[in-house]
Design a protein that fits this description.
Elements lengths: L3 H17 L6 H17 L3 H17 L3 H17 L3 H13 L5 H15 L4 H13 L2 H10 L8 H5 L3
Helix pairs in contact: 1-2, 2-3, 2-4, 3-4, 3-8, 4-5, 4-6, 5-6, 5-7
């Protein structure tokens, strides 16, 4: 998709699909719609909606122990963190995603792409420190810290940083 109109069209069809699938007996299909929906809203820069979508997605995935889905939600929330100037935290979370054995290819690709972009924004020392911190993080604690602050842009540095 190249233009904002393409994302608006995608948003329309994803919302329609989500509405028609409320009673879907295959929750994995609904989760796929959630992932696409979150990244479409991210491309449209509708950050309040994105935050709500990814928080709901992360919460549901953690309740169902759907780690690959939770990790993809962490990538989406990391994008919000990076956009709000919290690049070091985003790098740490993206590193956790890249190191996690349950990350699917989409999560790996999205995490690596954003990590590459963030690398040029941070000094080598800050980037290396954030990467090292990410290697120590655990998904369950990270998810709890992110969900405890329903507003990712104002998440407490200490709670997310200490989610190792």
């Amino acid at each position: 998709m190249s233009g904002k109109g393409d994302y608006e069209t995608a948003r329309y069809y994803l919302e329609k699909s989500l509405a028609s699938g409320q009673a879907d007996p295959w929750p994995k299909r609904r989760m796929a719609v959630f992932s696409n929906r979150g990244f479409v809203y991210l491309a449209l820069q509708q950050e309040d909606t994105v935050r709500q979508i990814f928080n709901e997605w992360l919460s549901t995935a953690m309740q169902r122990t759907a780690k690959p889905i939770a990790l993809l939600a962490v990538v989406g929330l990391s994008t919000l963190l990076s956009r709000s100037g919290q690049e070091e935290r985003a790098v740490a979370l993206l590193t956790m995603v890249l190191e996690h054995p349950f990350s699917n290819q989409e999560a790996l690709d999205r995490a690596q792409k954003l990590l590459t972009q963030l690398e040029s924004n941070l000094s080598n020392e800050l980037f290396a420190t954030a990467r090292a911190s990410g290697c120590e993080k655990k998904l369950k604690r990270v998810a709890a810290a992110l969900l405890a602050h329903d507003d990712t842009s104002h998440a407490s540095r200490s709670s997310i940083d200490s989610a190792a």
